[in-house]
Amino acid sequence: MITKLTSTQSDFQEKLASLLAWDNVSNKEVAQTVDDIIANVRNSGDSALIDYTNKFDGVNASSMKDLTIKLPALKQAFDALNKKQKSALTIAADRIRLYHEKQKQSTWNYTEDDSTMLGQKITPLDHVGLYVPGGKAAYPSSVLMNAIPAKVADVESLIMVVPTPNGISNPLVLAAAYISGITQVFTVGGAQAIAALAYGTKTIPKVDKIVGPGNIYVATAKRAVFGQVGIDMIAGPSEILIICDGKTNPDWIAMDLFSQAEHDEDAQSILLCPDSNFINQVEISIKKLLPTMDRQAIIKIALKERGALIQTQDMNEAITLSNQIAPEHLELSVEDPQILLDNIKHAGAIFMGRHTCESLGDYCAGPNHVLPTSGTARFSSPLGVYDFQKKSSLIMVSRQGANTLGKVAAILADGEGLQAHAQSAKYRISH
Amino acid sequence: MITKLTSTQSDFQEKLASLLAWDNVSNKEVAQTVDDIIANVRNSGDSALIDYTNKFDGVNASSMKDLTIKLPALKQAFDALNKKQKSALTIAADRIRLYHEKQKQSTWNYTEDDSTMLGQKITPLDHVGLYVPGGKAAYPSSVLMNAIPAKVADVESLIMVVPTPNGISNPLVLAAAYISGITQVFTVGGAQAIAALAYGTKTIPKVDKIVGPGNIYVATAKRAVFGQVGIDMIAGPSEILIICDGKTNPDWIAMDLFSQAEHDEDAQSILLCPDSNFINQVEISIKKLLPTMDRQAIIKIALKERGALIQTQDMNEAITLSNQIAPEHLELSVEDPQILLDNIKHAGAIFMGRHTCESLGDYCAGPNHVLPTSGTARFSSPLGVYDFQKKSSLIMVSRQGANTLGKVAAILADGEGLQAHAQSAKYRISH
Prior knowledge:
The structure is a homodimer. By secondary structure, chain A is α/β, with parallel strands linked by helices. Chain A folds into three domains: about 150 residues, Nitrogenase molybdenum iron protein domain (Rossmann fold), CATH 3.40.50.1980; about 200 residues, Rossmann fold; about 30 residues. Chain A is built from 17 helices and 15 strands. A six-stranded parallel β-sheet of chain A has the order 1-12-11-10-13-14, sandwiched between helices. The longest helix of chain A has 19 residues. The first copy, chain A, is globular, with a radius of gyration of 25 Å. The model of chain A has no long low-confidence stretch (mean pLDDT about 95). Chains A and B meet through α5, β4, α10, β14 and α15 of A and α5, β4, α10, β14 and α15 of B.
């Protein structure tokens, strides 16, 4: 049902490595298809986009008008929600906005004794494209999490693309687009939508950056247009790592493992705990609760293929293993999570204490749920306002500063054999 | 010699687009070679690395020991510099360090009324790989600019790779590595060095991120390993855009254009100025000064193929065009650059005032010289300390907070059909 390991078994590191293994490298056949789609959309614009959409999404569009959702339709979708949903979506959006406002960076500068000024100017991106998957993985929370940081950064326009397979759109997604302040919506998807956003068509504006999750075609297309536009990280399957001291209700831990596993068959749920007896209790809870779950088929495969209950020697070793894994979601289900925090080096988000289950953070605590997966927390960060702002260095050298800096620059430029660099600096030396 | 355009000519936008055109898309043949090299280094580690290095760099290494430079050799290289060079390198390093210290981010958090704590923990990357090109483009300043921000971020280890074609190493590069605090140096390069850093070999440690410039093989390899490790931007040719009011010494402007053009034949130098008479004077200065330049052959091709002197209607239009171009380096050669600054939206670095030539910033003003090229300043930033720090979200929901947030999360999770997410939240609701 789920792999059980102990950190002291001789083949532990090998077993762990094989559990964690996830090759992000894209399939060659997919890459070729995607390259063709991008080339066609670059060449034929809207008409290629319409053809692909009719073909892949089973719709019957004759013009881009048929693939456009006007803004009033978003408001209508929101207004049509029941009161509870409307309130939940609004509370979540407000909390996400509040948290992300703390991430906003500001222009700074300082002036040296000789009046030379140095600094950094912060500006928002102009145009951002937001990819929202259609079908089963169409999550309104994902719209909030991708769009709100961009709005907080003061991005001018936010273009959402969302495929509507067989013409079916998700009212919660449209409602979320409404309260996030999306500026335009097109019902296109796949590599063709990414190509349209990256290069622009007559109807779809060219954007500066594309964010949002998608299937392998979308991910491969994002990788291909990287450089032409900015992109967020290319996400692998979602994962949770729970460190528990053995004193949380085992049903809670089992359900937290399920909440990751229910995403899809590749999702990963791992528990680290020094208490073998508690691990057995969690296993019993898993067996007991699994039959009650709507998505038990998915959960079962995910737990069997990629899940694990791991007995560690102590809590310190659990932290060491967590740093090795660099999990997307790290739950510290312990009495005093603060004392563990200093030693945690790599994690997308850290859920602290028995009452902080991951799903609170997924929806409404405030921090972003777009997080680095597959160990990429070693070098990357949650999606944030900083992904929608950029920096320009400011350098204003005074007449006096040019004397001192000019001499230094000239020596270094000459050392690199760059005479024009040196001469350009020397011109500014006045004595 | 250099293209002259006026913004009012009917084909101006077309001409400008063709000047700016730069396709970053990688060559298929190169991509295949790079894929093979990466696969071989992943499979055979050091031995593949030694074979490729012997073959491509014309050396005769029999073990990785022959491809390792020990730290004392870096200090020796620094000690052997002349006094002026030692001082210039030290001043530059100190100024770069001082500026970058202002970029360092800190952990923050806030506590809500119900004792729920939210925040963001900042940690440095553990291991960073720094690629330094060998041969003609081996720039010590590039070592400072890539390494110092990583050191300021408190990166634990900084692994430098630098090919030594025919066994020749550059003492200035080694000296720069010394004062930057590089922790290990290997004399390997190309796609094989990138593969070794991304996947690790017996001798070369696996890193978390790879930064630094390189040729098309290096750039293609970086793109291929992106996701396995972090990478910095993939740089196109370097460019300068100068906005001048027509009152700077035209020789200065000509030399500033040269200082970009001398990098390589693809480098781009553009002047925007409303004064046609001044543009003619700059053209005369170019003709006069070009024969005095060591690298006149390169400058001549770069100016002819990709350079331009553009007459604008006024300074406002110059700013508008600059925002459209989103230059890597923007020089505001005017009396009062501050009044233009507010309207500048996209630029890697802004050099303000007649005394601030780009080369001061290239070497020693303090800000980074690794900047977004080819219009990518629309969505990306100079290399900085933030590239070597990462963020983890902190979420510690109180018992009371779990009541309110749990209800919101459960409604949204149910709306997305994620029952385990909902149940996990519901468990935490205590009344």
